[in-house]
Amino acid sequence: MTSFEEAGTEETVTCLHMTFYHPCQEDKMMFRGLNFHKREQVRVDEMPKFGRDSNVCRYNLMDTRVSRIQFALQFYRKLNSSEFCFEIKNMSKKTKLLVGQTELGYLNKIDLPWKCIICFGDYQILAEIEEGESVDYFETYLHLAEVPILQERCLPSLLPIPENGISPSLFPSQSKSPMEIDENES
């Protein structure tokens, strides 16, 4: 056997990609304590915390409006499964944490969806999980967003457009209830 044949199989690592945004990041530099564009290994028995207390939190946000510990992540494997997941827990007594469409109060926790937006105050974090197999550690990979992750977009109306081509949503002052019109009327 050659050394290539005897070599262990390369193990993939679960990676949590997190893209951070705050409207005042250029002025206040609240993300200066984070290492961007560098994969960082985290042991599975660690529970990485995000917040302003550098003695407790692995990921520091330099902002007095952020709680000492804002939130924490727990990496785990689902029971009777090979699937790895993250659990997110709100550690702030003052600020609610919005994970996707779910609002978490103090000490509430949920499974982190494979792709979601985490919000608190003016902070927006896009979290995306890249699946892996390692049972010893996972990785984080932090990114900085130049533009808001959440943007209000003008979505097209989902109402059917009448034959005359004028959408009733263009006239918000008109009644929303359907009107019956005789086809012979002009």
Automatic annotation (TrEMBL):
For the biological process aspect of GO, one term held by this record is: innate immune response
Q: Which InterPro entries match?
A: FHA_dom, SMAD_FHA_dom_sf, TIFA
| Location of the FHA domain | 50-121
Q: What are the record's GO terms for cellular component?
A: cytoplasm
Coiled-coil ranges (or none) = none
Primary localisation category: cytoplasm
**Lineage: superkingdom:** Eukaryota
Q: Where in the cell is it found?
A: Cytoplasm
**Does the entry feature the keyword Cytoplasm, yes or no?**
yes
What are the UniProt keywords, alphabetically?
A: Cytoplasm, Immunity, Innate immunity
Q: Hey, which family's this protein in? A: Belongs to the TIFA family.
Please report the name of this protein according to its UniProt entry.
TRAF-interacting protein with FHA domain-containing protein A
- Origin organism is Cepphus grylle
Question: What gene is this protein translated from?
Answer: Tifa
